[in-house]
Structures are given as structure tokens and as C-alpha cells.
TrEMBL record:
<dbReference type="GO" id="GO:0055085">
    <property type="term" value="P:transmembrane transport"/>
</dbReference>
<feature type="domain" description="ABC transmembrane type-1">
    <location>
        <begin position="95"/>
        <end position="296"/>
    </location>
</feature>
<protein>
    <submittedName>
        <fullName>Oligopeptide transport system permease protein</fullName>
    </submittedName>
</protein>
<keyword id="KW-0472">Membrane</keyword>
<feature type="transmembrane region" description="Helical">
    <location>
        <begin position="99"/>
        <end position="123"/>
    </location>
</feature>
<keyword id="KW-1003">Cell membrane</keyword>
<feature type="transmembrane region" description="Helical">
    <location>
        <begin position="130"/>
        <end position="153"/>
    </location>
</feature>
<comment type="similarity">
    <text>Belongs to the binding-protein-dependent transport system permease family.</text>
</comment>
<dbReference type="InterPro" id="IPR035906">
    <property type="entry name" value="MetI-like_sf"/>
</dbReference>
<feature type="transmembrane region" description="Helical">
    <location>
        <begin position="12"/>
        <end position="30"/>
    </location>
</feature>
<keyword id="KW-0813">Transport</keyword>
<keyword id="KW-1133">Transmembrane helix</keyword>
<dbReference type="Pfam" id="PF19300">
    <property type="entry name" value="BPD_transp_1_N"/>
</dbReference>
<feature type="transmembrane region" description="Helical">
    <location>
        <begin position="173"/>
        <end position="192"/>
    </location>
</feature>
<dbReference type="InterPro" id="IPR000515">
    <property type="entry name" value="MetI-like"/>
</dbReference>
<keyword id="KW-0812">Transmembrane</keyword>
<feature type="transmembrane region" description="Helical">
    <location>
        <begin position="229"/>
        <end position="249"/>
    </location>
</feature>
Length: 308
């Protein structure tokens, strides 16, 4: 077990290093720099001071080494566009907002999606199954920004039930949560239905029924547990998705989450902010992936660590 954990941590570190390097050099390959427009009207010496402050006057590889050295100290740098704003402080202040909206959307999506998937599997080729699959198709095919616009129009503009945008009150979370949970509902409804149908056709299910177990006991004791494995597989991606998938939603509903600042940093070529948030997302993903592997072993005793 210790060897396995060390091996996975090594892979995690390697993945993060690759992501950081790719993001760093790709950001530098974009034409222009974050100070080009800001320092345009300033004297030459002032411009030089600005570039020296953020290390943009040094060779590219030297900039990379300096960034990695600071990163090892836990310093993600300072925003280039918003002077005086620390990247670490921005992540600490904004990530709880994204987690609140996205986390609630994930919980709602999991509960509704798993429930709909179970209904679709138990009532295969009947109207409940067709209705669930129709909802799943809508959740997958309709873009988030279209769904958000429709909800804002009907529930805010036409009916006046909920605010169009803003933050600070419980009602501000309703529309963003509904919009965000649609993708999770659609994904889990399809996965759970497919997984349950596969498990229901296994020999041990026939054996359980032959022993006289009721259909409720068969479903709860045998089918449900083994059907959860595909759902756990995609859970890491969905957890990270509560941060990354909320970019457009946070923008459209004026939610001051981390996604809002991430999009702004990309548009403004804010190197430090883009790199810092990318490191945060990448670290979150690899950690969640490791946790999912352990949950896998807890849910299914048949899964054990092999020597290779």
C-alpha cells in the first residue's frame, strides 16, 4: 500500500510539472503581454521598471526557473493586471464561492441523476425510461450558456421569481445551481442505467433471485453497489468540474467565484493569475483522482492492489 501511494504521488507531481510547463510556455506564446496596453502611455524608464518588477525583461527560460523557484516556496505570484492582488489570496477568497455553488449543484445532480438512472433501468423500454433518456439528451446537448439564458429570461425577466444575477442571498444561488446540475444529472442518469442493466444480467443476480430474495433486496444488496463503480470513476472529473465547469455560469450570473477571475486573467494575458489558477485546478484533479481510486477499493472488495 505504501509503495502504491508513493508511486501515485510521484505520478501526481510529474503531471503537475508537465501542466505547469505547458501552461507557462503556451501563455508566453500568445502575442502581446499583459503590460503592453497598461504601460503604453508611460515613460520608457517607468515601463522598464514595470517589466523588471514582474520579471518580463528576462529570457523566457529564466522566467520559468524563477516561477518554479517561487512556486516551491508556495508563492503563486502577484496579478500583473491587478497590481497588489496576490494570486494565492484571490484563490482563497474566491474558491469557496465556486465550491458553494458547484458543490450544491453536484449534490443535487448526483441525487437526481442516480435516481433517474435507477428508474430508467428498472423500467427499461417504457415511458419512464424514454422520459429519463430525453432529459439526459437535453442535459448533454444544450450548452450551458443557452440554458442559463433561457432560465434568466423565463424565471427572472418574464416571471420575476428570481434575480437575474448577483451574489449574497440564497435566491442568487437557485438559477446557477439548476443550470450547473443539468450536466451531472444527464451524465449519471446514462451511466447508472447502463451499469445497472449490465449488472442485472449477471449470473449472481439470477442466483440471488433463485435463493428467494425479494426484488428490493436484490437491487439494494447486489445491483446498487456494483452499479456504482462507473459513477465513482467519473466522480473526480465532476468534482473538479464544480470549479472549472462554472466559468460561463459565474460570468453570466455575476458570481465572484474563481472561474470569473480565471476567464478574466486569460482575456487580459494575466500570466500569474492564469498559471496560479491552472496549478490549483490541476492539483485538485490529481488529488481527487487518487481519492477515487481508494473509494473504488472500499466499494468493491474484488478490487485489490496488484504487484504491477
Amino acid at each position: 500500500m505504501a509503495q502504491y501511494i508513493l508511486k501515485r504521488i510521484s505520478y501526481m507531481i510529474l503531471t503537475l510539472l508537465v501542466v505547469i510547463a505547458m501552461t507557462f510556455f503556451l501563455m508566453r506564446s500568445i502575442p502581446g503581454d499583459p503590460l503592453a496596453s497598461l504601460a503604453r502611455a508611460l515613460p520608457e524608464q517607468t515601463k522598464a521598471n514595470f517589466y523588471a518588477k514582474y520579471g518580463l525583461d528576462k529570457p523566457l527560460f529564466q522566467q520559468y526557473l524563477i516561477y518554479m523557484k517561487n512556486l516551491l516556496k508556495g508563492d503563486l505570484g502577484e496579478s500583473v493586471v491587478y497590481a497588489g492582488r496576490s494570486v494565492s489570496e484571490t484563490i482563497v477568497q474566491t474558491s469557496p464561492v465556486s465550491a458553494a455553488v458547484g458543490g450544491l449543484a453536484l449534490i443535487v445532480g448526483l441525487i437526481v441523476g442516480i435516481s433517474l438512472g435507477i428508474v430508467a433501468a428498472l423500467y427499461k423500454n417504457s415511458w419512464p425510461d424514454y422520459l429519463v433518456m430525453f432529459i439526459a439528451i437535453l442535459g448533454i446537448t444544450i450548452p450551458v450558456f443557452v440554458l442559463a439564458s433561457l432560465f434568466q429570461y423565463f424565471f427572472s425577466v418574464k416571471l420575476g421569481w428570481l434575480p437575474t444575477s448577483g451574489w449574497g442571498k440564497p435566491q442568487h444561488m437557485v438559477l446557477p445551481v439548476i443550470v450547473l446540475c443539468f450536466g451531472t444529472i444527464a451524465t449519471y442518469a446514462r451511466y447508472i442505467k447502463s451499469s445497472m442493466l449490465e449488472v442485472l444480467g449477471q449470473d449472481y443476480i439470477l442466483t440471488a433471485r433463485a435463493k428467494g430474495l425479494s426484488e428490493f433486496q436484490v437491487i439494494t444488496r447486489h445491483v446498487m453497489r456494483n452499479s456504482m463503480l462507473p459513477a465513482i470513476t467519473i466522480l473526480a472529473g465532476r468534482i473538479v468540474g464544480i470549479f472549472t465547469g462554472a466559468f460561463v455560469v459565474e460570468r453570466m450570473f455575476s458570481i465572484p467565484g474563481i472561474g470569473f477571475y480565471y476567464i478574466s486573467s486569460i482575456n487580459n494575458n494575466d500570466y500569474s493569475m492564469t498559471l496560479g489558477t491552472t496549478v490549483f485546478y490541476a492539483a485538485l484533479f490529481v488529488v481527487m483522482q487518487l481519492i477515487v481510486d481508494f473509494v473504488y477499493m472500499l466499494v468493491d472488495p474484488r478490487i485489490r492492489l496488484a504487484g504491477d
